[in-house]
Amino acid sequence: MMLQTLKSVASSDRTAHSLVKLLLGSTATVIALTCQGCGETDRVSGDPAEPGGPVFTIEAKTIRLEDGVFAGEDGTVSLVASRRDDLNDDGHDDLAAVLAMDSIGSGVFYYLNVLLGTDAGEWHSAEEVFLGDRIEFDFITIYAEGSTAPHTDVRVHPDDYGLIVVGYSTHADGQAFSEKPELYITGKWRVVDGSIVSTR
Predict the structure, then answer these.
(1) In this structure, are residues 155 and 148 in contact, taking their beta carbons and an 8 Å threshold?
(2) Longest dimension (CA), the chain
(3) Which residues does 84 contact at the CB level (< 8 Å), separation at least 6?
(4) Which residue has the higher pLDDT, 165 or 55?
(5) In 3-state terms, the chain is what percent helix, strand and coil (to 5)?
(6) How many domains are contained in the chain?
(7) Looking at the DSSP assignment, which residues form a beta bridge with residue 83?
(8) pLDDT value for 122
(9) Range with lowest mean pLDDT among 72-81, 88-97, 157-166, 186-195
(10) Can you tell me the distance from the alpha carbon of 138 to that of 120, in angstroms, rounded to the nearest whole number?
C-alpha cells in the first residue's frame, strides 16, 4: 500500500507526523475517521471509551470510540489511558486522553486529546497533540492538590496544579523504529485560554 511504503521510509516522528497529516487529509485516507452523530452535542458524562462518549480527534478528523476502539477500514484508533480533573479552574471536570492509531504495520501513532467541560455540561475540544510514532507509553496524570510527581513521589507545587503530564519513551534521532525507543520524555501541557500549551 502507498501509505505503508511512505511511512516505512519516515526517518523521524516529525516526518511520520507530516505523512499522516497529508494522507489523512487526502481522498485516499486509509482510515476513514468519521462516525455517526459526530455533529451532535456531547455530554460530560460516562466512560470516554463507551458508546455515546465524547468525540475525539486525530489530525482534526472526528472519531467516537465504542468499547474503547474506533475501527476503520485499514486500522484502528484505541484509548490508551485518560484522566479527569479541572484543567482551567472553572469548576467543571475536563478530560485528558492518550489515543493510539494503529495503521496495520506502517506505524502506531499516539496523540494527546484534551476536552474541556462547559457550563452546559458539554465537551469542548482544546486541540490535540501528536506524541510520536511507536512510542512506549508510561503514564498520564493531571497535577492537583495532594498530587506527587510520578517516579519521584515528590509533592507537586501549587503552581503546577492543572498541568497535564505524559511520560513516554520515543526513538532518538537516527534510531530505527524497529528498535526499542530509548529517549524518555516527560511532556507537560497547560490549558491557556481554551487551548493546550506545552510547558516543557
Answers:
(1) yes
(2) 50
(3) 93, 94, 95, 96, 142
(4) 165
(5) 10, 40, 45
(6) 1
(7) 96
(8) 83
(9) 72-81
(10) 34
Q: Which of 192, 2, 19 is closest to 109 using CA atoms?
A: 19
What's the whole-model pTM score? 0.75
User: Per the structure block, which three cell numbers stand in for 140?
Assistant: 498520564
Can you read off the three cell numbers belonging to residue 33? Answer: 475517521
Q: Given its phi and psi angles, is residue 146 left (phi above 0), alpha (psi -120 to 50 degrees) or beta?
A: left
The answer to whether 66 touches 51, Cβ cutoff 8 Å, is yes
More confident residue, 165 or 9: 165
**Cα 11–17–20 angle (5° rounding)?**
110
Average pLDDT, the chain: 78
The tally of CA atoms less than 13 A away on the side-chain side of residue 155 is 4
Site of grid cell 463507551: 50
Give the model confidence (pLDDT) of 2-26 as tens digits: 333 333 333 444 444 544 443 344 3
Range of the domain at 119: 2-198
The CA-based dihedral angle spanning residues 54, 60, 66, 71, taken in that order and rounded to the nearest 10 degrees: 180
| Res 182: pLDDT | 95
Q: What is the 3-state secondary structure (H, E, C) of 116-132?
A: EECCCCEEEEEEEEEEE
And the C-alpha cell for 93?
Answer: 471536570
